[in-house]
Amino acid sequence: MHLELIALLFLVLPRLTSPNAVEVHQVQEPPQFQSLSASSASSQCDFTHLHPRRYAAYHLPPPTDQFSPSISIDGVLDEKVWAEVPWSEPLQDIRGPAFWSQPWFATKFKLRYDQKFLYIGAYLEETEVWANVSQRNEVIFHDNDFEVFVDADGSTHNYKEFELNARNATWNLWLNRPYRDGGHENSTRVDPKHGFDMLSGGMRSAVFVKGPINDPSERLHYWTVEIALPLLQLASHSSSKVPPVSNSFWRINFSRVEWPVRVVMDGGTGKQHYEKKAGLSEENWVWSAQYAVDMHRPEWWGYLQFRPRGESPPMLSDEEVPLDPEWGVRYVSFQFYYAQHAFHNATGTYTSSMEQLLPYFTSREAMECTKLLDMSATDKLFSAQIGLRTSVDDVSEFVASIEEDGYITVEKVSKASVITAIE
Description:
Layout (H helix, E strand, L loop, with lengths): L2 H9 L26 H7 L9 E6 L20 H4 L8 E2 L13 E7 L3 E9 L19 E7 L7 E6 L5 E6 L9 E2 L17 E6 L12 E9 H4 L14 E10 L2 E5 L6 E5 L6 E4 L15 E5 L20 H21 L6 H4 L6 H6 E8 L4 E10 L2 E10 L4 E5 L2 H8 L1
């Protein structure tokens, strides 16, 4: 089967509806690049055209006699500290901007932070505002919902997820690793007594709707949310510090689930209500594209940069947030990871031979930009150290270590030590 057909089949896979399901690994775009010359390697191997979206979060200012910067979590984004910062780009289809279907309702967010909390304000355009789930820490995405995903250290492990619907029913959980890699949910939904719960750290949320929900006779146009997520819980079991280091990056993404509904008349009461259309799947709209119907691919999440305390928000909304200098080596490391899993699916084992692995790369550019420094593999495990080739005889100053479960770390090293490792 051609790689182009394989990629197309993956694009039409439905969203996971079971929290503990494992989705098939999707390859990225099929090979489309010519062999890299020495002069082009440096420019093409940075992969900036695939860099996820970025947003800068500004620290709340200290209070003064005339101004208190606190955010009242009531769902109404009317505080001055919200007006000071720009909206994000609108959410897009989870499969990326090139996918044929794109959102017909606008969704956007703003971020602020202080020493203890990450604050999220979001606007969701909607003409049919409904929600059924009312209990905390139930599976919320069976309703229309808004979701937040945070990977504090970029390892793709020990990340946190938060969901809420228009009733302000919430679900928060900690995943030790993605479901595709054998990960599992830790929350009070699965372990009521000992499960992970950010409520103990001061988590708060609120929803504002200009009118009652679940009422088709109401002419509603949007709902807004405010969320305060405790930084200590977001960063738990990671290497990130709290308060965050100035100008540091955390990985973050936002998702909106939108179900098609119809208006149904209740025969007993004569009242109308919304009901999901049978046989139709939901839409999944995200901030930074996942290139698959799967939010649990943290390597594709966007970047949150924490601006220094005392720095004022920009006057213009199009301020440029820096690129992650580690992005290139992270990208090729996950192309290597995808290739190893494709090889394992075909043969039942991983390989320590780059030559055997080459046919399983789906991007020729990524393959040629990968400088393998070290690799070991068995039928169940693999680990590799990878550099980013910047010319024929050189590699980048960043080296990634990646394992079969997707755990990745990146270290900045001297060029001399990298060259020694290669030799």
